[in-house]
Write a structure and sequence with these properties.
Number of strands: 0
Membrane topology: Multi-pass membrane protein
Keywords: Membrane, Transmembrane, Transmembrane helix
Order of helices and strands: HHHHHHHH
Structural class: mainly alpha
Subcellular location: Membrane
Largest sheet: none
Shape: globular
Number of helices: 8
Helix content: over 70%
Pfam family, one: TRAM_LAG1_CLN8
InterPro entries: At5g14285-like, TLC-dom
Distance between the termini: 75 Å
Length: 249
């Protein structure tokens, strides 16, 4: 059984990575080949994000519900490991995308490296704690479908009136949903996670040198997310105020 699990594990990750690589190349060379060279990489990245985000929510949710021993220190199940491999393949592919096309975007590169550290150590080093990692993954990807549509529309809104209308229509609900998930639900779950690990609930299973970086990575991700969405709300308010003043005039 152990040998079979090792064989399956050695096949699953290369399969997922090849899948995301093919989707990216299809997007870059076929789907978006007529787009501006500056937007082709961004659109191709959004394409693989579409194939990762919602599936990760569904797979992650299914893996969590199927686990009868849910808890911050519970052993990783085979289903959970599959989801972790799926997300590892996506983040590695997107990391390569940023390194190749946007090497100066240090923030996103650092984010992907930190995320990969959390997923890979959970999957291959401690083999425990997938519950917390997958809950955070589900929360992070819950708004990805809307975000990808918003990003694509935003990239075309200056030259396409329909894209501009889609962008304007999506902005308020996307901002609101993102604010709730990243500003309230995520921090609350993070608080429960810190309390559990700090109290020694995973002693002997998830060492301090593993869970402390996990917490630091998630805290920084939440902090950056809150700053990002706050700036978007400010920009949204300024744009709406300017349009209102123009109408009054």
């Amino acid at each position: 059984m152990t040998s079979l699990a090792l064989i399956q594990g050695s096949i699953v990750f290369p399969f997922f990575f090849s899948m995301f690589l093919i989707i990216y190349l299809v997007g870059y060379f076929i789907v978006f080949r007529k787009h501006n060279p500056k937007t082709r990489p961004e659109f191709s990245s959004c394409l693989i994000s579409i194939f990762h985000g919602t599936p990760a929510v569904l797979l992650g949710g299914g893996a969590l519900l199927a686990d009868g021993q849910r808890g911050f220190a519970a052993p990783n199940t085979a289903f959970q490991k599959l989801v972790l491999d799926f997300s590892t393949a996506y983040f590695l592919m997107d990391l390569i995308h940023y390194v190749v096309f946007y090497p100066k975007d240090v923030l996103f590169i650092a984010h992907h490296i930190a995320t990969l550290f959390v997923i890979v150590t959970c999957r291959h080093v401690v083999s425990h704690g997938a519950f917390s990692v997958l809950v955070l993954l589900v929360l992070a990807e819950a708004t990805s479908a809307c975000q990808n549509a918003w990003t694509l529309a935003g990239a075309k809104r200056r030259e396409d009136p329909f894209a501009a209308r889609v962008y304007d229509a999506l902005s308020p609900p996307f901002y609101a949903a993102y604010s709730v998930v990243r500003g309230f639900i995520g921090p609350y779950f993070m608080y429960r996670m810190v309390v559990f690990y700090a109290s020694g609930g995973a002693r002997g299973l998830v060492p301090v040198w593993i869970w402390v970086p996990w917490v630091m990575v998630v805290l920084m991700a939440i902090g950056v997310s809150i700053m990002w969405i706050s700036n978007l709300w400010i920009q949204f308010y300024k744009e709406r105020t300017t349009k209102l003043e123009e109408k009054i005039r």
